[in-house]
Amino acid sequence: MPPFPDPRGGPGFLIEILYLSYNNIMRIEIEKMAFGGSGLGHLDDGRVVFIRKVVPGDTVEANIYEEKKDFAFAVAEKVITPSPMRIDAPCKYFYQCGGCEHQNISYQNQLKIKEDLVRESLQRQKVTTDVEKIIPSSDKEFFYRNSIRYSFLLGQDNNIALTRHQPDDNELVIVDACMLQSETSNLILRKIRDYINKNIEDKSTFWQLKIREGKWTGDIMVEIITSSSHLPNEKGIIAELRSISGIKSIYQTIAPGKSLINLRRRLIFGSPVIFEKIGFYTFQISPESFFQTNSEGVETLYDLIKKTADVKIGDEVVDLFCGTGSIGIYLSTLAKKVSGIEVVNQAVRDAKDNARINKIKNCEFICADSKKWLHQNRKIKINKLIVDPPRAGLSKELIFDICNSDFDIMIYVSCNPATFARDLKLFESNGVMAKKIQPIDMFPQTHHIELVSELVKSK
Ligand SMILES: C[S@@+](CC[C@H](N)C(=O)[O-])C[C@H]1O[C@@H](n2cnc3c(N)ncnc32)[C@H](O)[C@@H]1O
């Protein structure tokens, strides 16, 4: 059993001091995992307490640092009795970093926890549809992510470090690798940090670093996000990054006032896009576009969507929230027409290019808000309707229009079981029922859960 790390260590020191100053220590049994990746237990007075980085079945000594009327938050200081599910977390930053929540739980148990959470979110909404056994999306439990964002941190010694956020987003953790990233991605982190420290005196402009990879193509895109338009030693930075094989695209992204609104991108090396493969298809990715973050797992996800949709010759397919058009293109072989709807302009341009790159003629991509588009097109015949919204799920108006539109099968792809369950409740009250709910693990070691559900109109 691993010793529980001292929460006072590392760059989170100050915030931990604040927590500990409450000195309100209690012995707590962790009953289960809650949404968001915290363990859940009860205080002596019956209130629920949330504790991060613990394992269901642990008994821990925890320091309560925030109390509300009905619940509290605590930080675990010591594991008194470890859960049988507990394992050593392989990453040295695990207990400080907010990137993963479950590295100290064996993978089979992570899967079971996620499956139970899907069930629980449905029960909370009184939805009775069965949940299938969760499937892993690939056999890679680490090194699977194809993108990451770090923040630069300038120390008092004028050296720069790269950091991730702590679990509650309020403190930064200095890292020199991430175990969900490839070795090459970790090498980029270290190279750029060391280059800046050796060669650049005024480092104040460096704000964030984003790395994106095509895992199947080897293409890499690096975005250096600065708070001003001047990029010191631009040529040197480019030369340093180009020494790494696979670098296809380097951007300087200017974020005035360190805000992610109104970004201005400047391509400083190579191609404006990189490429990634899903199955037989090739997709282009721009810095602005969403792309599924687990390149190996996404093939399993899309195969599941394809099998569930069972597109027949002549089908009309609508793919709402289509991103770079990847699901629609993946399902397009037998369809008469696929219409993909996406609100981000650049993603729509990528989707059109992706159809062209894959020599696909039956897909159209429209830049529009999904809700508005479906409202205007609610009279058209749709054989297969795909919806893959962001975590917030669907609006009531869109659900209402879907229920009143003429579709045969709807596939709801969700990355948030809580909003999925909320939406399903509304679908059911409008006569659209889930036939099947299949969770799939796209994000090992983290609390994120993906699922694919088939919905049909009740007769
Ligand atoms: C979870 S991603 C799915 C993308 C795509 N289906 C895929 O598998 O890569 C959700 C997408 O919805 C887009 N989006 C968000 N709000 C939207 C809206 N109101 N109308 C259309 N698209 C929207 C986002 O830009 C993003 O590309």
User: Which structural class do you get from the secondary structure elements?
Assistant: alpha/beta
Identify the bound ligands.
S-adenosylmethionine
Can you count the helices? 10
Provide the CATH architecture of the largest domain: 3-Layer(aba) Sandwich
The average pLDDT is 93
Largest sheet: 8 strands, mixed
CATH H level, superfamily name of the largest domain: Vaccinia Virus protein VP39
Indicate the percent of residues in helices.
10-25%
N-to-C span: 55 Å
Oligomer: single chain
Query: What is the top-level CATH class of the largest domain?
Result: Alpha Beta
Radius of gyration: 23 Å
The name of the CATH topology of the largest domain is: Rossmann fold
Tell me the β content.
Answer: 25-35%
Q: Which outline best applies?
A: globular
